[in-house]
């Protein structure tokens, strides 16, 4: 397992001591998944956070009509950190592997133990929580835009996702029908 990219990202948050790196190394695990695997289902308690080394993953839920809504897309280099998992409450979301993915994982229970032993962990957790709040705010601002502007903004920010994700998932993420998304793509 090559944990260097993970440590580099954590070092950007706060310098890691040798002792913390050693403690983390003992608790980290490498996991690999095939495309279209569900690694968490709604109602389950997520038991670990993930650092996505490669691949794409999404969170989604079903509304009361049975319609699927994609709420989050992670890509290589992202932390998959869940409020629900951290606080040990059942998740509302499904976590779906979009393409073959490799991850470094750490259980939330080990994270809590490391937090007691290493003060840097508290700073890392606070930074991750703030990052996810900012991402949620940006997503809310995106879906508040008019349809075409929403499409253009997302297309400009993450053009490569249009080649990777199926249109139904991109449309769901952008809160529009697949037909509307297809029409907007056709205009480009």
Main sheet: strand order: 1-8-3-6
pLDDT averaged residue by residue: 94
H and E order: HHEEEEEEHEEHHHHHH
Number of helices: 9
Major sheet: 4 strands, antiparallel
CA distance, first residue to last residue: 42 Å
- Please report the total strand number as a whole number: 8
Strand content: 15-25%
Structural class, from helix and strand content?
alpha+beta
Low-confidence stretches: none
Q: Globular, elongated, flat, extended or rod-shaped: what is the shape?
A: elongated
Helicity, in percent?
40-55%
Global Rg: 18 Å
Tell me what you see in this structure.
The chain is of the alpha+beta class. The chain is built from nine helices and eight strands. Strands 1-8-3-6 form a four-stranded antiparallel sheet. A four-stranded antiparallel sheet has the order 2-7-4-5. The radius of gyration is 18 Å and the shape is elongated. The model has no long low-confidence stretch (mean pLDDT 94).
Secondary-structure topology with pairs:
Elements lengths: L3 H10 L4 H10 L1 E5 L4 E3 L7 E7 L1 E7 L5 E8 L3 E2 L2 H4 L7 E4 L3 E7 H10 L1 H25 L3 H11 L3 H4 L2 H7 L4 H10 L1
Antiparallel strand pairs: 1-8, 2-7, 3-6, 3-8, 4-5, 4-7
Helix pairs in contact: 4-5, 8-9
List keywords for this structure.
188 residues; 8 strands; 23% strand; four-stranded antiparallel beta sheet; alpha+beta; single chain; 9 helices
Quick summary:
This protein is an alpha+beta fold and 188 residues long. It has helices at 4-13, 18-27, 83-86, 108-117, 119-143, 147-157, 161-164, 167-173, 178-187; strands at residues 29-33, 38-40, 48-54, 56-62, 68-75, 79-80, 94-97, 101-107.
